[in-house]
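Late entry, written up from scratch paper. The run itself happened at the end of the previous shift, but nothing got recorded in the book at the time, so transcribing now.
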Amino acid sequence: MSHLQGIISELYEKAKIGKWTHVMSVWEKAPRLAQHCSHFQKASSGWTFLHQAAFFDQEGACRTMIRFGADPSKLSTTRQRACDVAKERKNFALSKLILRATQPDETPWSPVDDPYTLPSSNLWEEASERMASEELFVTYGGSIIYIAPESRYFVDSFERTLVGWHGSYNPPCGMDGEPIALSNIG
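Output as recorded:
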């Protein structure tokens, strides 16, 4: 087991026993580690950090995992998604939130299992403007979109980058080249 895998496994064990203050503190200090954690799936149970966060009603952790690329449609060995776990725990609002983040398979915005890139989104109605403080590498349609530092881009409510047709992001555009969701994009 690599050193990184060991750290991720240790953090997963903390998450599994509800030590979310510690886990979130580590992720805040090391966002790249959070990116790697967002793709972790325990082999024996199939649970992810997103499943654990849903179990413990940790909306902030769920949002962090989705932001960094967790696939909300990932199934555990018992065929449960994280939204199913939240629903089973009677947290219907969290279940609905996680379900809203789910992207259908086989679309340009489908999650990919790459901890070195960030996910993209097509939730245009949630568009908020951002300015890149560092290089961003965002997956879209099997490609990687590069966003340079100090470049404008737009995100959904999970902080996933909105990417339009042909990889457009400043602003995301439709097939005709017109900005998508003009009411949200200035």
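Helices lie at 3-16, 20-29, 31-37, 49-55, 59-67, 82-88, 92-101.
(Scratch paper discarded after transcription.)
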